[in-house]
Amino acid sequence: MPGSMLFTMVLCFALSVSVAVSIGLASIVGAWQANLNLLTIVKEMFGAINKFPLAAIPFFILAGNLMETGGISQRLVEFAKSIVGGFQGGLAATCVLTCMIFAAVSGSSVATTFAIGAILIPALIKHGYPVPYAAALQATSAELGVIIPPSIPMILYGVSAEVSIGELFISGFGPGLLIGGALMIFAVVYARIKGYGKRDHEGRLPFWVATRKAALALLMPVIILGGIYGGIVTPTEASVVAVFYALIVGVGVYREIGIRDLPRILQKSVVSSAVIMFIIANAGLFSYLVTRAGVPEAIGAFLVEWLKSPALFLLGVNLALFVIGMFIETSASIIVLAPILAPVAQHFGVDPVHFGIVMVVNLALGMITPPFGVNLFAACTVARISLDQIVTRLIPFVLVVLACLMVVTYVPTLSIGLRDLVYAK
User: Fold this and answer.
1) Which of 341, 367, 371 minimizes the C-alpha distance to 354?
2) N or C, which end of the chain is more exposed by having fewer CB within 10 Å?
3) 63 and 111 in contact (C-beta within 8 Å)?
4) Contact 302, 123 (CB under 8 A)
């Protein structure tokens, strides 16, 4: 049964069938071979999405879309540029820093790509950066949207592996800052080597002016993350707070969202949320069938037999996840693989929260690697170029993130050190 399910899913991918439908069709094949009752199929699909933490996903998506339309994104760009935009390569660093700040609210890399890319890709091009490079930089920087909390993939891992979402969120700060810092350093050095961005300082606001203009935008992640770690709200409740805050600021303060804009924003958010929920439902059934067939136990036994140490296990998992992330969407990969791999990781003595961060960082690479990198498609759409034009420009960025992934993997303190400090008894 697992073999035919895998064959069906790979065949659908080869035929360019969407991820959600591919997983669903593979699950139907597995259910038919297992003579599964139709009510069981419906029950498992409903059970996969009938989880309270998942309610945060549509709200964070809506908050990101409200920020994009409500002028919050533009003010964050001006704030970031006031900090790092005063030298050659500073605009490239601004792109990374803005994505880091925006990620602290949106939880979505695609939302970050569109919201920040619509502003910074044209600005980078205007300042002499090649179009493919600007798109590659934006796509890679937006990856931080799923690493720096709040993060939709972290929510999915927490639900799938039964791990505290709050602990995952706080453990994402270290890796997020590491990757963001490494990307900024690389972007600045690369710009100076190539001679890009010699006019990056133009149009830069003084720091205090930019801070004053962006004060309400900067207060948003403070309220949300402070509420979560202060025990005032759960991550799900914080997503609702994010929506109301973005709506109040965008409509009542900045006045850049009109009543006529709301239906379009809501429609866009509903479509994005429905796609993710459909993937989750199908992946839940797929995971149930795979578990029912004993695949997790078989994989666990194989890994224990062949990978004798935690270091080798993590290396093997990273290699496998990197390849998987190139072909399967991040959310679907986490939902299917987390219940299988998390128990094996615990057998090797790997902290489940640390392992979750490794999974998220690794699979986030799939968002910027062909052929199915969603960030690439989003960045190419904004930059109005084809995918083949961006691929060669991506290689240095992928190598930078891979190097950071190795640090995150083998220096667990970077992830769980802050968690242990905050949650110390």
Assistant:
1) 341
2) C
3) no
4) no
Query: Measured between alpha carbons, how far is 54 from 163 in angstroms, rounded to an integer?
Result: 14
E strands present in 17-60: none
First to last CA, the chain: 46
**Smallest Cα–Cα separation from 136: which of 124, 146, 127, 149?**
124
Supply the DSSP string of 55-76, one letter for each residue. GHHHHHHHHHHHHHHTTHHHHH
- How far is Cα 296 from Cα 211, in angstroms, rounded to an integer? 51
The sign of the dihedral angle between the CA atoms of 104, 281, 351, 232 is positive
C-alpha 164/C-alpha 141 separation (Å) is: 26
Torsion-angle region of 265 (φ positive above 0: left; ψ -120 to 50: alpha; else: beta): alpha
Q: Is 66 left (phi over 0), alpha (psi -120 to 50) or beta?
A: alpha
**pLDDT surpasses 60 at 425:** no
Whether the model pTM is above 0.90: no
Residue type (1 letter), 228: I
pLDDT, tens digit, 9 for 90 and up, residues 289-319: 877 777 666 766 676 677 778 888 899 889 8
Q: What's the rounded Cα separation, in Å, for the pair 425 and 412?
A: 20
